[in-house]
Fold:
Amino acid sequence: MRFVDSHLHLDGDDADATLRFAASAGALLFACGVDRRTSEALSKRAEASHDVVAPFVGVHPSEAEKEGDPAWLEGATARASGVGEIGLDPTYSPAGDDGAQMRVFRRQLEVAGRLGKPVQVHSRGAEARCLEVLAEYKVPGVLMHWLESEEALPAAMERGYFVSLGPALLYSKRLQRIAAGADPSLILLESDSPVPYAPIGGVRGPMLIPSVAFRLSEARGEPFEEVLTRCNLNALRFLGRKG
Ligand SMILES: [Zn+2]
Structure:
């Protein structure tokens, strides 16, 4: 394993190419579903390439209203590496206590806790509320994916939650401050593929991970190799693997 992409999706039209790249580059992909269809498809893909893909199944906040009551989740979670991408995001639909987002988020945290699986959390615009809700559940690992809130960072670090930095680190001053201020033993790297990054020419995919590691080494004033190796070990610790 040369590097880990700790958060991405394999439901885009370039998923096959991404998998081929990962296999040839020696990358390990922590891939997430966003609903039942993508979670089940991902589980199938992971069966065929389990040395490359660690599958996370779940309902993204954008799909919570459509999914309703995800009864399929329990069985899918038992067979997966973890639960994700789950969380709260008021951009998509109401994220308050009485809404579908909160109900589905809580249901998934309960299943993850009971089955002992790590979770990948999307918290855009609801970082503080996500942290409050997470505190009510015992899950073996939490990744606050693409955390952009400098206010939420200290609490996340204090609880030993991981944060993942992606290609936006190449140009975002705020993410560079988060990179410099986060506990180095809790930082992971992600591409969030197939998200394209306009400021760097619309490039996307796990091939960006070494560039993110390079920018991280610059932000922290630490050698590139050391940063990449540490992020790999952090990622395996999040997954519950030794290395
Ligand atoms: Zn994502």
Observations:
- The mean pLDDT is 96.
